[in-house]
Structures are given as C-alpha cells and as structure tokens.
Amino acid sequence: MKQLIVNADDFGLTEGINKGIIRAFAEGIVTSTSLMANGQAFEQAISLLQDNSSLAVGVHIVLVEEVPVCPSHLVPTLIDKKGRLHKKYGVFLRKILLKQISLDEVEQEIRAQIEKVLNAGIKPSHIDSHQHLHVYPLILKIVLRLAKEYGIKWIRTPCDYRRPCGIAQRGLAFLAKQARKRILKAQLQTPDFFFGAGFSGHMTEENLVEVIDKLPDGVSELMCHPGVAEYDLITKYNFSWADELRVLISIETRELIQKRGIALVNYDDLSETKGWI
User: Fold this and answer.
1) CATH of the domain at 264
2) pLDDT tens digits, residue range 5-41?
3) 194 by DSSP, 3-state: which?
4) Using CA atoms, how far apart are residues 102 and 21, in angstroms rounded to an integer?
C-alpha cells in the first residue's frame, strides 16, 4: 500500500506562507504542516487552524535565522549580537563542534518551542526542523528525549529517496540514515521514505510527477513550501513559494495520485492506525 504525507514546512513564518499552506490543504494535496513557534505570523497560523482542524500540525524546530522563544538572556550562546538565532546552519554547526553553544540552552529553547505549540491548544503530530538540524547527533539526542516526554511519536528523517547531489545533500543523507536508526531504536516512528530535499523550495510539476510515479510501497513524506508570493520572502529565501502552491492545488496532480492508487494521509492518521493515543 502506498501512503503519502504531503507536509508543508514553515507554517507561522509569514502571513503569505500561512495563506498558501491553508489553500494547499483546502484545495490541494497538502495533508500536514510544521509550525514555527517563533515565526512572526504564529498567532495568525493558530487562528487559521480553527477552521481547518483536520490539518495535522507538527513542531518545526527552529535553531537558526529567527528569534528565540526563550528570553535572550537565557540562551546567550544561541544568539548573535542582534538577539537573533545564528544566521546559517553552518555557523550553528561550527559553534556546536567548537563547544561554543550550550546544549542545555538548545534543550531549553526546543522545549520552549514545543510548549508554545502545546499552549496554543495543539497536540503536535510530529517533529521536524528548519534546515533539518534535528538530525545532527547532539541535537537528535535532545529531540528524542523531548519527543518521548511530550508524547510525540513521529520524527522526520530527511534522507531523500533520490540519490543526493552535492556535498551538503550527501552529508544530510548520511546524518538522516543514522538518525533513522536512532529514532527506531528509541521506539519512535519515522516514515519509510522521504522526498523533497533535492528540490527544496523549487518543486515543479515535473518533480512532483516523478515522485508520484516512483512512489514505493509504505509510508512516504513529501516536503513542500507553498505560499503566496511576497517580496520579502523571495529576496530572503529565493524559494518558489507561489509556483509550489500552483503545483499542489493542480487538478491534474490530484487525478494522478488517484490514478496511481496512492492514499493521502497525515501523521495523525498513522498514529490512529497503530493504536496510539
């Protein structure tokens, strides 16, 4: 049986992204989203969920680029001189390796993000992260502990089913494979397959058709980034937000999924199937 989770990342980052994700859910194939507790449009995202309660919502852990949920004085090693989280994952990982970042502060910030989502009335269906930092071994150890503590059963492993290209993608694939072993050993769950890392932010109709045509039996996750085009988004991330939205709400896309006998599901559906609370 082929089951596909279509997860839209960055819910809560901006109002344009929020609107795009909700439209991709209401009119398209998106079944799940990942919420940024420190996104500038977090409150709007929560409001939009009131009329879209069947959209599964996970926690999108953010340790770079945005502002921390914790007060700055509690996480001094996680922030720069402007009080923001370090700008790039490379800077963050280098500081981790040099022991210039406190892992206690990392845990405190991740805990604060999870609890902010919980306090908004949401029971998270899964955990993933901005720039996939949760698969880095030292961070994963924290994530596994907190996932168990808060009863979150599913964790993303971003090891793309397609052969990775480039040093960064190969490095991510290696870390994700190791993370999968640790997640399962911890008696938590992760999808069997993952798609989207190779064309992150730039998914085209051709990419999506390839995924649908080659989807293996089992549970797969497709990461996507729909949104309503905004100038600040385009300049900051260089993602094709509006183009991805058009592909995700295409009638042809839904018809192809039905033709291939693929079941669109979310993490909550899978948890119910396995009898979890």
Assistant:
1) 3.20.20.370
2) 999 999 999 999 999 999 999 999 999 999 999 999 9
3) strand
4) 34
